[in-house]
Amino acid sequence: MATIKIKQTGSPIRRTQDQRATLIGLGLNKMHRVSELQDTPEVRGMIRKVQHMVEVLD
């Protein structure tokens, strides 16, 4: 299955609890951390929810 790399570029400070939980679910919690996950619709939805705090890498 294809994978997708995401990098956290925004801080979870002053964000809602569900956005913080989404970052943790993606394997991110600190600035500039990179996580590689399977490219599924569920992961894409999580990325869309916190798109202002993450960057999709090639």
From TrEMBL:
Q: What is this protein called?
A: Large ribosomal subunit protein uL30
A GO term for molecular function = structural constituent of ribosome
Lineage at the top is: Bacteria, Pseudomonadati, Pseudomonadota, Alphaproteobacteria, Sphingomonadales
The biological processes this protein is annotated with in GO are: translation
Q: Which PANTHER family match?
A: LARGE RIBOSOMAL SUBUNIT PROTEIN UL30M, MITOCHONDRIAL RIBOSOMAL PROTEIN L30
What HAMAP family does the record point to? Answer: Ribosomal_uL30_B
Question: Which species is listed as the source?
Answer: Sphingomonas sanxanigenens DSM 19645 = NX02
Tell me which UniProt keywords the record has, alphabetically.
Answer: Ribonucleoprotein, Ribosomal protein
Gene, per the UniProt record: rpmD
The cross-references to Pfam families, in alphabetical order and at most eight, read: Ribosomal_L30 (PF00327)
